[in-house]
Amino acid sequence: MVSALSDIYSVLWVDLRFLRRHWLRTLATSIVSPILYLVAFGFGLGRGISFGGYGYLDFVIPGIIALTAMTGSYNGAGMKLHVDRLFYKCFDEYLLSPISMFSLAVGKTLIGVVRGLLASVALLAVSVALSPTLIVSPLFVLVLVASCFVFSFLGVLVGLWAKSHQDMGTFSTLVILPMTFLSGTFFSLSQLPDAVKAVLYVLPLTHSSESLRAAALGQPFPWLSFLALLGFGLVFFSGCLLALKRTSV
Amino acid sequence: MEEIIQTEKLTKTYDGISAIQDLALNVHAGEIFGFLGPNGAGKTTTIRVLTTLTKPTSGRALVNGFDVVKESDKVKKVIGVVQQHLSLDRDLTVRENMEFRARLRRIGSSERKRRIDELLDYVGLTEHTNRIVDKLSGGMKKRVSIVSSLMHRPQVLFLDEPTVGLDAQTRRRLWELIRRLNLDGTTIFLTTHYIEEAEALCQRVGILHQGCLIALGAPLELRQKLGLVTVETLVNNKETCYQYFADRAAATSYVQNLPPEVKTIIIRDSNLEDVFVEQTGQKVGGD
Description:
Chain A has 249 residues and is an all-alpha fold. Chain A has ten helices and two strands, in the order ααββαααααααα. In chain A, a hairpin with a 2-residue loop joins β1 and β2.
């Protein structure tokens, strides 16, 4: 157990060194998009609109935080791994070491979690100032951390699966981008027909933003959605282990 | 003589095409063994199989007596690998790259520091310890790559095309380093497609062609089998012919009796390229 934790930290250590050197650039690039969404949708388009008794800004902020957690974690875990594998080609060093696939997968996931949380907390600080009704409860923190893990697992999985830079781009365009706009981040799914709603519930960000919004606005918590989010995490993590097994003996 | 690497009928196929086929190889403990062959001959595949990175399709390979498939963890403990491409994190410093390798090998903090200082001193990079790897010259990067793979003091060091892309001076400095490592007790298994590198460094070489081992032995032994002296002739200004002789006297006697239409005669020492060409009909440098 101690050895596994030490191995996980060893994998994380190298990515933390990189983050320490480039933290400002990393943070800035992670929060530019969410702040633009906040300004464009929250202040611009959404001014005067209300949802279920809440102003649009109050409604949209938890969604944008979920979105930030997703992009920060997914890119934080996936892009570096992908670059290490296909561009720097230093990923083999992990496979040549005696550390287990489990420790490697968790270690590579944690850097995504750290980067996702860093971006989300920065945005949260701005959001709390803009929307005093936002409740940052332990449940909110739990959902935020779980979301970072889920999307970080997805980043590791895609980073291991991609055989080229184009593969990463294709996945982002076909999966991440539609998820950004369709997962209840900017609008309520209750307005949609059941068939469309059923499709959107297949996306993990839908569950992340619904759970985060309920926790932030003090609404009844959608435990089923939270469990679904954890289920996605389990599936993605299993996928990571399988992908790692495929890349080594 | 103790064998540190042994393979039996080792085969790796990709989509039905053999990268290596029925490879039977043995490397003695303490030697510098060279794997010579053109690009695409299967050299890198062999290294990947021997270093546990790729699973063989069939056959068996042992490193220090451990099976590379069934006992891969034990194999990993006794090997160091320097890949053809620079497998360094170019955004980190020299020291950070070495520390990263040491951490992955579970080397404790004080021992880690001691070994990093010792190895940087060994290759003359102490003053570059805090430089970002991306800012180093090609030769320095290669040296960092080599010493990083020595953090856990491996018994066998695999070097895949260690001097490819380096200038002549840097190449010779790396040769010195490889010889020094070998003299200090590390068995070296290197691949190369440079004839002079194999001849300068290796006590024994295996010549690989299209995944098959076509010759194995000491460079001198292989040249002796072919003939130590080569005579190159140009017949009717068209085709270059090669003849091999045991010594210069025999070669000179042959040249003196050649017909007048045979021109441009060169008498030179034969080399491993001649061995390769005679066995395959192709040049080592050709794809």
